[in-house]
Amino acid sequence: MSQASRRDALLRAVLRTVQATALVFLVAFGVNMQAHAQSDSGKVVGTVTDQAGAVVSGATLTLTNNENGLVLTATSNNAGELNLPAVPRGAYTAKISAPGFQSQSQSITVTVAQVQDLLFKLRPGAVTSSIEVTSAAPLVNTSNPTLGETIESSQIHEVA
Question: Taking the complete model, does pTM exceed 0.85, yes or no?
């Protein structure tokens, strides 16, 4: 085999390897693009703060689809952040609530492959508290001013 034929055979082998590698990348990239293109959902993120700008953790976001009634919920983390990564497209009512704050609602529209960023500034609400009495006070005898008590024999022996 001549040197030219060896070089041609080597070039063909390298070309086949490059073509095979390119085909693998194109197939993998094409499948990823196709999967992404077929998604019919968007993402909803947000931040919950109070009127002073302090974050509110533990706030509950409830998204209700206005067309089909689908309900999705998320809870704000310690940084006051909300994240709903896969929300089907459509018109929603977004309601946020947290203990000690007034609830808020707003209308949003989620579109395909878009991020809907919400900002909630909660106002203080009415703080409710309750007191529960678990035992009654002893009865007071208001008709007789004398004081009386029963002493057990064991108490007498303890004193002596």
Answer: no
Residue 108 structure tokens: 């949003």
Q: Are 125 and 141 in contact (CB under 8 A)?
A: no
Domain ranges of the chain: 1-38, 41-122
Model confidence pLDDT, tens digit, residues 65-101: 999 999 999 999 999 999 999 999 999 999 999 999 9
- Token couple for 16: 């086949």
Dist CA 94 CA 8 (whole Å) = 67
SS3 for 27? helix
What is the architecture of the domain spanning 41-122? Sandwich (2.60)
The secondary element (H helix, E strand) that includes residue 35 is helix 3-37
Q: How far apart are CA 108 and CA 93, in angstroms?
A: 6
